[in-house]
Write a structure and sequence with these properties.
single chain; alpha/beta; FAD/NAD(P)-binding domain; Enolase-like, domain 1; 3 domains; 7-stranded mixed β-sheet; 5-stranded antiparallel β-sheet; 23 strands; 33% helix; FAD/NAD-bd_sf; NAD(P)H dehydrogenase (quinone) activity; oxidoreductase activity, acting on a sulfur group of donors, NAD(P) as acceptor; FAD
């Protein structure tokens, strides 16, 4: 068997693994990267990239019939679904070279396209090669999981791994799961002309602030998405071909459709790693890590989805940067979960960072303040007729500790709040910024202004002070 020694061995070539490999190699470390599947991982090939490309196509289709409020006669869009999917895969192909094996080999990374498994605490085997490394980084990501429902394994169903292989538009897409993936795809397929039904055991987007979710829910219903919330699925069965190819029997009634998308969650990929041989502890939610992302084996780190702290590409990238600092420079690098934003790319988008109201009550009791700014107070939103939404800021001791935005471009607007929370800025710092007019970015400053308004304009002491100064001015 071939023997290989290296500084860092990375297992998994998704977003996090690629970031570690490229960063470490460019800084002078010897790096081996092991990947048994596609370079770029889930995000490039089956997740973030194809879904956002599909959402963009759906937005164009929707815009053809949404101009009446501007005096533009609605037109029924003609959707060539096969060409929509060509656009999706063309987008993947355009980005793929950045994540390619050739690029990483040019950076000096040794790439092994095979499945890797631990054989000891400091050795991994892959493709007839035994790699001994000073440090290992596990970045194997996650995969979709299906719930245990009677009959589900007896019908054909889609996941995010197969959804983008479609070339014919579903007549009626039934989405099982009302989380971010399910809701994004439900709206996109509805806008592309499919009938869509969402079945969710609880409330859609249950992790998010109910006030923000209500704006998204109203839009989904207005666009014709059928929502079945608090719906328990008792059985799944095959039906006849066509619109009733699959049927979900609920606790009350049933839902039938031509296609079924299962979007009920994801599980970390750990089963092929032989972690016990490396003395690395893992549970069903992910590999156990410290706040420095070190596992129970001091030589081994875990990042991204497999670390069980969230399933976001940007989180994996953040993890990667922290691990590179720790491994290469021995710099303390502790993960701060409260500065990681999340976005659901519906229309309107919903973005959040930090603590929710419930978490604030638990942590601060009554010592926090909620400030809301409706988008109807923003001139750009009024001009574009996109006033359904709000900015919601939770503050403690004058600093934002949680921020939610629902509205157009919420994923971009959350960025300034992410900076503010990462750097510990006060609301006064945000109020002091100057935003271009008229932009949606003004909502950040406006929200800070709304926070200070009661303190300024409803303050008798301040008014008396102003009166005193005015009397003595020359």
């Amino acid at each position: 068997m071939k023997q290989l020694k290296t500084d860092i061995c990375v297992i998994g070539a998704g977003s996090g693994g690629l970031s570690v490999a490229s960063g470490a190699a460019q800084l002078g470390a010897n790096v081996v990267l092991i990947e048994s599947g596609e370079m770029g991982g889930d995000c490039l090939n089956r997740g973030c990239v194809p879904s956002k490309a599909l959402i963009a196509a759906a937005a164009h289709a929707h815009s053809r019939g949404a101009g009446a409020q501007f005096g533009i006669a609605p037109v029924e869009p003609e959707v060539d679904f096969a060409k929509v999917m060509e656009h999706v895969h063309r987008t993947i192909a355009t980005i793929a070279p950045h994540d390619s094996q050739e690029r990483f080999e040019d950076l000096g990374v040794k790439v092994i396209r095979a499945r890797g498994r631990f054989v000891s605490e400091d050795e991994v085997e892959a493709q007839g090669t035994r790699i001994k490394a000073r440090r290992f980084v596990i970045a194997t990501g996650s995969r979709p999981v299906a719930p245990r429902i009677e009959g589900l394994d007896g019908v054909d169903y889609l996941t995010n791994e197969t959804l983008f292989d479609l070339r014919e538009r579903p007549d009626h897409l039934v989405v099982l799961g009302g989380g971010p993936i399910g809701i994004e795809m439900a709206q996109a397929f509805r806008r592309l002309g499919s009938r869509v039904s969402v079945v969710e055991a609880g409330k859609i987007m249950g992790r998010e602030d109910p006030d923000l979710v209500e704006v998204v829910r109203a839009r989904l219903l207005a666009e014709g998405v059928e929502l079945h919330e608090d719906a328990s699925v008792e059985r799944v069965r095959a039906g006849e071909a066509g619109d009733s190819a699959v049927t979900l029997d609920l606790s009350e009634g049933s839902v039938s459709g031509s296609h079924l998308l299962v979007a009920t969650g994801r599980a970390p990929v750990t089963d092929t790693l032989d972690l016990e041989k490396a003395r690395v502890l893992a549970t069903r939610t992910g590999i156990h890590v410290t706040d420095e992302l070190r596992t129970t084996n001091r030589r081994v780190y875990a990042i991204g989805d497999v670390a069980g702290q969230g399933q976001f590409t940007h989180l994996a990238g953040y993890h990667a940067s922290q691990v590179v600092r720790r491994i290469l420079f021995s710099v303390p690098a502790k993960v701060r979960p409260n500065i990681i934003p999340r976005v659901t790319y519906t229309a309107p988008e919903l973005a959040y960072i930090g603590l929710t109201e419930a978490q604030c009550r638990e942590e601060y009791g009554g010592n926090f303040q909620v400030t809301t700014l409706p988008l109807s107070r923003n001139d750009r939103a009024i001009a574009t007729q996109q006033t359904d939404g709000m900015v919601k800021v939770l503050t403690s001791m004058g600093r934002p500790v949680g921020v939610g935005i629902v509205g157009p471009g919420a994923g971009d607007l959350i960025g300034i709040w992410a900076l503010a929370m990462a750097k510990g800025l006060k609301m006064s710092d945000i109020a002091g910024m100057v935003a271009a007019y008229p932009t949606l970015a003004e909502t950040t400053k406006q929200a800070a202004g709304a926070y200070f308004s009661p303190r300024l304009f409803d303050n008798p002491t301040l008014k008396r002070a102003v009166g005193f100064v005015q009397r003595w001015l020359p």
